[in-house]
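We store sequence, tokenised fold; for instance:
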Amino acid sequence: MQTPQQAIETALNSKAPKDVVLAFLMNTSKELVAYAAEKLVAADADYVSLNFSNPELKQIEPWAGTSKGREVYIYTFSNVGTYWNIDDFQITDLISENETVAVFGQFTYTSVVAQQTFTSPFSIKAMVKNGLITYFQFMEDTYASAASFRVAGEWIIQQDADSTKNFSVSENS
């Protein structure tokens, strides 16, 4: 298996979309992501994290929503490594067709402050042009990731017109 640096070298030489995305993902730790973004992400690349726009979620996870520019990649992945301990990150499938790359897998994170651990599937849709990521959409179990920061509180859920079917969700649920 390649080292993170070797993966970047392979991606820079091949410019193959699959190699570029894999190299970026292998270099997303706080210590490596700035260099990887400089080499593998277009200066004006789009980044979509978890949703297109959700102000409430953005308060919990500041990188959520749609952003533009290489710096947001650095900001996002640096903060993931600040807010959570990355216990496990596994890519199970990486599929490439022309400029489009799809990645599937799962990860386990533990929130640094609340010490809540969760495991989530993830999926990524990326676009690579001329050896640079130009679009990156990251999806995960957003409910679980946001809930990993919950330290108190309760929601009363009403999914049905019959309010007798309401139920509560809390940190002890």
Observations:
- The radius of gyration is 18 Å.
